[in-house]
Amino acid sequence: MSPETGTRWILAVMALLLSYPAAAQQAVVRSYDQPELEVGQAWLVSSGGRCLGVLPYHVATETTVPSLLKEGSGSLRGEAQSVVDLGDDAAFAFMTGAITRDCGLSLGSISRATDRNLRGGGLGALRFINGDGTVGRLAVTVVDDDGQQLLRVQTTDPDERIRKGQSGSLLMVNDQSVGMLLSVNARSGIGTVMRTDALLRKVEDYLRNPISQPQAASQTQATISAPTAELKNQDAWSVAAWNVDPVSSEHTAARLTAEGNEGFWSARMGNPPAALEFSGPGSIRVVNGITFHAGSEVPQAQLPARVQILTSVNADRPAWRVSGSGTLTFEADRATLSFMPVRARYLRIELFDTRGGADEISLSRIRILEAPPPPR
Fold first, then answer.
1. How many CB atoms lie within 10 A of CB 121?
2. 301 φ, ψ (degrees, to nearest 5)
3. Closest by alpha carbon to 42, among 19, 65, 71?
4. Do 92 and 203 touch, CB atoms closer than 8 A?
5. Digit-coded pLDDT (tens) for 317-373
6. Residue 54's closest CA among 20, 102, 89, 22?
């Protein structure tokens, strides 16, 4: 290779690595039970008003509750509440949490021109999200293409390796996704990629006719053990977002609106405030207080102390107003913070500290109180 050719090749690789815009919205898949573990990657797409995470099936099932952290400085969090096995190690999951507010491109708008994008020689990069939400890229070249479903890639730098936590990374060529990394051969270092056209066809076929598809739908433990039904007058309120990770998959935020008294929510405080957001029914409700249930399992030192309540009548783009604040006093395992009746469809609870200064904050249940209707 001549010096001129080598220089052009290096510049081409650098351009590829630096030029990928928000054409692909991705998230790193993590484990609540092993916070340091990056399980894999997911591609966020929207369809019919729903947020989907497209990812390898083995990544989706490697942890009890797949926890997703979206790329970018905002680092929106989400969870996969169900996983649909599409076959050939491809899957998608229906997403919940703040991650659904910015779910990337519509499924129908994503380019399927895989062959056209590969004509330039197959030089591209695997795009993935690191554990802190930053974007990572690994230069690769396509070494094999069956023209229908699978590609194979290897790194352009022999000293670089495709690692396990990169499964689900997008193969980007000409600023377009041409495939998703499924696995890597430990000996050869060659990665197997499912082509974008084949992958999205599987997703669309299932969404069009889910009953007839030969798939195995598996509910995550967060859905099974903590259904989002609520106490009396609470069946329409559900956990919509959170900014802190639970201490384990047994203590997710979904516990706060679950039926019964078993289990509780517990999270690492991090940088206060710990915030929880709740979505109400389709119609606007008049709320006038929050009851916090301690439960018998929660250590007293982990109960919240100072709190602030914010409400919004707009759920899609919340315009927050402070409706109440104070320090909680628990009696008979519960504390109620009342405020003047306010119209709301969306509610945010900010928790600033704990009663005993603990590093973890915990609650059994939360009940949003509604003002009685005016007399006729």
1. 10
2. -65, -20
3. 71
4. yes
5. 889 999 999 999 999 899 999 999 999 999 999 999 999 988 999 999 999 999 876
6. 89
DSSP run (H or E) holding 173: strand 170-173
CA end-to-end distance (rounded Å), the chain: 87
**Residue from 85, 100, 40, 90 nearest 66 by CA:** 40
- The H or E element spanning position 79 is strand 77-87
Cα→Cα distances 242→72, 296, 351, 365, Å = 17, 23, 11, 15
Residue 204 contacts residue 244 (beta carbons within 8 Å): no
Put the strands of the sheet holding 306-312 in their side by side order.
238-242, 274-279, 346-351, 306-312, 321-327
The pLDDT assigned to 7 comes to 45
Q: How many CB atoms lie within 10 A of CB 115?
A: 12
Burial of 23 (0-12, 13-18, 19+ CB in 10 A): middle
**pLDDT (tens digit per residue) in 94-130:** 999 999 988 988 998 898 888 888 887 678 999 999 9
How far apart (Å, rounded) are the C-alpha atoms in residues 348 and 369? 14
Q: What is the DSSP string of 309-359?
A: EEEES-SSS---EEEEEEE---BTTEEEEEEEEEEESEEEEEE--BTT--S
Q: Percent helix, strand, coil in the chain (nearest 5)?
A: 15, 45, 40
Q: Which helix (H) or strand (E) holds 115?
A: helix 114-118
Please tell me the distance from the alpha carbon of residue 106 to that of residue 51, in angstroms, as a whole number.
9
Which DSSP category does 269 fall into?
Answer: -
Distance of alpha carbon 49 from alpha carbon 62, whole angstroms: 27
